[in-house]
Structure formats: structure tokens, C-alpha cells
């Protein structure tokens, strides 16, 4: 027994047809606007085109139903046909896009054929199915308007932060899943945007670079090992189909190499639209670099300070650049002192040095947000929650083992970085501290709060350290 059902919806958009087409064609993001989809994943490598496959998980009552979609017709900016196969039905979605004087017109036709018991059920609830389909396309049209306000923390979120333990729940994978329910789609077209990601060969940096390349950005990763950089670039190109992926080799724990990196990038003359200061490591025991600096301070604070300042000409050139500083929730427990940047006045602890440096980076982000606003540059500090990365396993092995069941994967940890790099509404903010696309307080206790004088002392100390390598 079978039952056929057809649905037809259409809408107008002020967006360009190529923007609309590229977003709709990426069915890995369908769960952003179709709330009957639990999860979606692109399962074939390369650019989206005829033959590209996506695995979706569809919510049907209390059941989860797997569907595999295949692109069967692909005419860029004009026509897309997707065929979906599930155990109880086949779906053929046809999308036609035509240019108009004010943007474009989207015509969506869905033909479904249900089999077996599903055919009997759908026959009885056909009206409800069509109504749900109409709402889904309306949600897509709303998403493509791309006019969301900048997120604000709710009163409940602020209270959770103050109570500490409820706030720390948000660092886990369960906090991520809870937060995700309230997110808006990312429909901005970032094709051609140039992104530099430090620490881009593993963990959060690798996930960020891969996702942004998949979304069409031109991505440059920075890593220490040239062989690994080459392999990672090839993998990203294979996965994304985006050939505009490159690498630069630099040991970011050595300031001379940071400055050499900035010199190379500046010599290319290409604007940088997004700089992700992600490189980091939790170092135990205390280490001193060949330049005579305590290694945590050099890598986690002085390095991104020097790189961001030295790349300022290329960030200005963008006209709407974003700097994203990857920090850590560990900073909540520590205060930074300009007179103890290299942990010389206390017994060294890698986690404490890490936390202090990350707090310093957040403070610098707040300062840059004010100082560089006139150039159209926005600055965004974030922390990824508790994510299981190679760095965590090496730096805090006991924590990684004991907390493994609640730790996020790198996709969950990197999500806010990707959102900060791509989402339109992010440009409406600057200088905030983000977790799961929501701004959070930077202090849980007055004991970590610095005075304006102490903040200025940090700025001055970093300038002095940076200037020592400018001679």
C-alpha cells in the first residue's frame, strides 16, 4: 500500500539568489530551520553537487527516523533537486530560484510517497503533515531574512553564573545541548572571506578551519609542524571541496616567529576578515622559551597580543574584520597581575598560569574592542566549555579521564567560534565574553576584578615586552 502527497510553498527574499541557493543546498544545516530534523551531516567529500549525500535524522513522534538525501540535480543559483530515502517513504524536493527586481523568488515542491503502515497513518493526518511542511518553509524564509538581534543573557543565565555550579553545568556537553535549542540559523554567505586560524592543525582550531572552509571562506591555518600543516590542508580541501585553504608555519611560543608570520601575511597584502587567536597549551612543569620568556605567558598572551597588533593593517583593510580570542572558563578562578606575568612570584602551576594568561587575553580583547572600533573591527572573547581536545588530554589528563562522559566534542566546543566568525548579528556586538552564543560575565568574584589602573599596567607591560622584539 502506498500514499502520495505533494506540497508546494513559495516565498520572496531580498537576498541574492546565490546566497539563498548555497544555504539551501547545504542540507547539513537543515536542522537550523527544519525543527523536525534532529541532526544532519554531509557524508560525501568535496563541493556540493550531483551525487552529494547527506544523512538526516527525522523526528516522527517518539521515533527517530534516518533519511539519506542525495543531490540529483544541481544548477547553481537556479535549481536544486534532492531525493530522500527512508524505510517507509521516498521524498523528492525540488527548489527553483528565480531572480527578481528586489532579490529572488523561491519555489519549493515536495513530493512524498509513503509505504506500508506509514501510508495508512499519513492518509489520516495529511492536513497536519501539509501544515507542518508549510511552517517549515516559512521558518526557512524567516531564517533567510538574516535579521536577528544580538543575543543577550537571560536573568536565569546571569543567576546561574553567579551561583557558579549551575553555570559550570553549562560548560558540559549537556549545557551545549540545552543552549542549542535557542539558537538562530547562520545564513550569512561567507564565500571569499579570509580567515586566519592559529593552532589550526588539531582540536578546536582544526574543527573551526574545516567548518569555515566548508562554508566557503578562504582559510589559512597556522601551525608549528610543516608536514602536519600540509596534511591538514589536504584533508580540509578534500572534505570541503574548497581549494582556498593554505597554511603558514610558525612556533607561536617564539615572538620572533610571530613577528615573522605577521610580516609574511602583511607582504601578501590581502585583507583579513577574521583572525582566530586559538593556539594554546597547558604547560607543566614550568618552561622557558629560547627567547627567555616563561612559555605559558609567551604562547597564550604575548603571542596573540603581538600578532593581533602586527596584523592590524590587514584587519583595517577588511573594513569589517573580527578578532576572536579563544579563552577558558578556568580564567574565572584567577586574577592577572602585570608584575607577575611570568609566574615568578609564586610556585608555578601550569593550570594557574594558563588561567591568568587567558584572563589577560580577554582583557586585551576588551581594550581592542574600544581602541579599534573606529576601523570597523569587532573583537569577541569566548570560551568553548569543557571540550575533549588533544590539548586537554595532554595538559590535564586526570581531568580528561574523570570528566570524559560530560566533555564536549570539538564540534560542540568550536561552535561559538564558528558562529562568531560567520553570523551577521555578531557584528552588532564587540568586547563581550561568549559561551554557546550567549554573552556571560567575565568575573564570578570581586577577587578577580582588576582596577582601571591595573588594567592599564597590563597594557603597558605587554607593550614593553612586545617592543623588545621590535628592535
Provide an overview of this structure.
The chain has 471 residues and is an alpha/beta fold. It has two domains: 144 residues, START domain (Alpha-D-Glucose-1,6-Bisphosphate, Chain A, domain 4, 2-Layer Sandwich); 313 residues, Rossmann fold. It is built from 16 helices and 15 strands. The strands form two sheets. Strands 10-9-8-11-12-13-14-15 form an eight-stranded mixed β-sheet, with helices on both faces. The chain has a seven-stranded antiparallel β-sheet with strand order 1-7-6-5-4-3-2. Helix 10 runs parallel beside helix 12. It is elongated and about 80 Å long. The N and C termini lie far apart (81 Å).
Gyration radius, in Å: 24 Å
Poorly predicted segments: none
Strand content: 15-25%
CATH topology of the largest domain: Rossmann fold
Mean pLDDT across every amino acid position: 96
- The CATH homologous superfamily of the largest domain is named NAD(P)-binding Rossmann-like Domain
Q: Given the structure, what is the number of helices?
A: 16
Question: How much helicity do the residues have?
Answer: 25-40%
Largest sheet: 8 strands, mixed
Oligomer category:
single chain
CATH top level of the largest domain is: Alpha Beta
Amino acid at each position: 500500500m502506498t500514499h502520495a502527497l505533494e506540497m508546494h510553498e513559495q516565498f520572496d527574499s531580498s537576498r541574492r539568489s546565490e546566497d539563498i541557493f548555497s544555504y539551501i543546498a547545504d542540507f547539513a544545516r537543515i536542522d537550523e530551520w527544519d525543527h523536525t530534523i534532529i541532526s544532519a551531516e554531509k557524508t560525501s567529500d568535496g563541493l556540493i553537487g550531483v551525487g552529494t549525500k547527506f544523512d538526516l535524522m527525522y523526528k516522527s513522534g517518539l521515533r527517530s527516523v534516518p533519511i539519506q538525501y542525495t543531490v540529483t540535480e544541481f544548477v547553481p543559483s537556479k535549481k536544486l533537486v534532492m531525493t530522500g530515502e527512508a524505510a517507509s517513504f521516498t521524498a523528492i524536493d525540488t527548489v527553483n530560484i528565480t531572480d527578481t527586481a528586489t532579490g529572488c523568488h523561491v519555489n519549493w515542491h515536495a513530493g512524498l510517497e509513503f509505504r506500508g503502515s506509514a501510508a495508512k497513518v499519513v492518509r489520516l493526518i495529511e492536513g497536519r503533515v501539509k501544515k507542518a511542511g508549510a511552517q517549515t518553509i516559512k521558518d526557512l524564509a524567516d531564517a533567510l531574512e538574516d535579521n536577528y538581534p544580538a543575543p543577550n543573557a537571560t536573568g536565569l543565565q546571569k543567576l546561574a553564573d553567579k551561583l557558579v555550579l549551575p553555570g559550570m553545568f553549562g560548560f558540559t556537553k549537556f549545557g551545549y545541548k540545552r543552549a542549542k535549542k535557542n539558537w538562530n540559523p547562520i545564513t550569512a554567505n561567507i564565500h571569499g572571506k579570509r580567515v586566519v586560524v592559529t593552532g589550526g592543525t588539531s582540536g578546536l582550531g582544526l574543527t573551526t578551519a574545516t567548518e569555515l572552509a566548508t562554508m566557503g571562506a578562504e582559510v589559512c591555518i597556522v601551525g608549528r609542524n610543516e608536514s602536519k600543516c600540509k596534511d591538514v590542508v589536504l584533508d580540509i580541501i578534500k572534505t570541503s571541496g574548497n581549494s582556498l585553504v593554505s597554511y603558514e608555519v610558525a612556533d607561536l611560543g617564539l615572538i620572533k616567529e610571530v613577528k615573522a608570520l605577521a610580516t609574511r601575511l602583511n607582504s601578501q597584502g590581502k585583507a583579513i576578515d577574521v583572525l582566530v587567536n586559538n593556539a594554546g597549551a597547558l604547560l607543566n612543569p614550568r618552561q622557558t622559551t629560547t627567547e627567555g620568556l616563561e612559555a605559558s605567558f609567551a604562547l597564550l598572551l604575548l603571542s596573540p597580543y603581538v600578532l593581533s597588533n602586527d596584523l592590524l593593517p590587514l584587519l583595517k583593510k577588511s573594513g569589517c574584520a573580527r578578532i576572536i580570542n579563544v579563552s577558558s572558563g578556568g580564567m574565572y578562578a584567577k586574577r592577572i597581575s602585570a608584575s607577575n606575568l611570568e609566574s615568578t612570584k609564586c610556585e608555578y602551576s601550569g593550570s594557574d598560569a594558563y588561567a591568568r594568561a587567558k584572563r589577560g587575553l580577554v582583557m586585551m580583547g576588551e581594550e581592542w574592542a574600544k581602541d579599534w572600533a573606529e576601523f570597523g573591527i569587532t573583537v569577541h572573547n569566548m570560551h568553548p566549555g569543557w571540550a575533549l581536545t588533544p590539548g586537554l588530554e595532554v595538559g590535564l589528563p586526570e581531568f580528561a579521564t574523570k570528566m570524559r562522559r560530560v566533555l564536549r566534542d570539538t564540534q560542540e566546543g568550536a561552535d561559538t567560534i564558528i558562529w562568531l566568525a560567520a553570523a551577521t548579528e555578531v557584528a552588532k556586538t564587540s568586547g563581550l565574553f561568549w559561551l554557546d552564543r550567549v554573552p556571560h560575565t567575565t568575573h564570578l568574584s570581586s577577587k578577580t576584578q582588576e582596577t582601571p589602573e591595573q588594567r592599564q599596567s597590563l597594557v603597558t607591560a605587554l607593550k614593553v615586552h612586545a617592543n623588545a622584539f621590535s628592535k
